[in-house]
Amino acid sequence: xxxxxxxxxxxxxxxxxxxxxxxxxxxxxxxxxxxxxxxxxxxxxxxxxxxxxxxxxxxxxxxxxxxxxxxxxxxxxxxxxxxxxxxxxxxxxxxxxxxxxxxxxxxxxxxxxxxxxxxxxxxxxxxxxxxxxxxxxxxxxxxxxxxxxxxxxxxxxxxxxxxxxxxxxxxxxxxxxxxxxxxxxxxxxxxxxxxxxxxxxxxxxxxxxxx
Length: 211
Description:
By secondary structure, this protein is an all-alpha fold.
């Protein structure tokens, strides 16, 4: 039996002029609206082109298929998340564990505030989950947490720091997904962030004094 290849999700070309940049921005804005209204299962390039007020041919100049559009939305969201975590975790004016707690709370609140969009994106994940681009984006998010672990756990073995970074990202991602799916209040989300943040800090303390 043949193994199904992951879809091609790389953009066909990058916009270089202001007009083409605006066209891509219009397509992505329309894609957000279609995803929110129709969901991942009924998301099509034709619907996006219609919403954007452009021809399907114009859309295909930049995005080869619907998976490429959805992945671009996901990649933009991942980049925002990565920049948020980097900004908080790299703030050397604050104690390390305070930074970690702050990063957890900021991440969870973002998931809560954009819950409808996040749920729709999560539903679309199987369409591009196994692509090299998706794997690289996950690694990029994990690397920013690893930089923090290298600072917080300088005496720990390299493999322990790498495991801690992956564990933090995995738990935050899983809990964040649940927060997006469930109708929780802001106070509940903050309480959950406090609990998860304390759990992470206790885990790192254990690594520090393990040897």
